[in-house]
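Example (one chain per record):
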Amino acid sequence: MAKRYGTTGELVGKRVLRDKSTPKKPEAVGRLGKVRHCVFHPNQRRFVGFIVKRPDLLWMFRRKDVFVAYNGYDVIDGRIVVLQKPEATDKGACRALGVDYDDCVLWADLPVISEDGTVYGIVGDVSFDPKTGEVRSLTVSQGATANALLGVKEIPGSMIRGFKRGIGTAFAVNGAADEENPVLGAILVGDEVAELAAEGGLAAKAGEATAVVADRARETVEAVKPAVSGATKAAGKAVNAGAYATGRQIKRASGMFSAFKEEYDKARKDD
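Predicted structure:
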């Protein structure tokens, strides 16, 4: 049986080859590019494929990206090899998948927001069924420093409601974002996510000094969340300049944890 990857983390950045085999050269392949983005269905919790960025021609002329269906490739000797069939790439793939390429979205770095408006962070790694593309789970990132301190929360597919327009932050459609007329988007999850515990994190493993820094990080995030959550609910009614400002605030909230690194290092030295 053909092997395929089951997480976005395994795919992004991987080199991609195209099957160019013939009866005389059964193992012939050609270089295609690197995986740039993972693409998801606009209405379902489903991974539909990935975008391959091709190398520029003569280092000057940009070539068009290639969309590869989630089932349009095999992993051979650790390399992604795109199949030689019409439904593996681009328009043929979209027809076979029953999706409009322009409606598909990228989940990476979108805010994760519960139905009550709580902002948990941004989408990190997404796990899915390699056979069907059905999303199994996603991890919530709050920035490298916060992840190290507080751990990472993994949300199962049953709690993921899916992509929702009109709330959250400006998102990219097929890798391109319109900064002048942004479309807002977020991954909506159930309120029961609040009961999930984060896994890992130094605060759970190390001593009291680390826990103190983690508590301060939590306090800062909680101070930011009400304003973000309130604006997020308002943004759900209309996509406007005010809602776009909310998107920028969410980005700032997700990046605030870098300020705690210096304090954390100091706490470790004093411990």
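Caption: Helices lie at 8-11, 90-97, 144-150, 202-205, 208-235, 241-255, 261-270.
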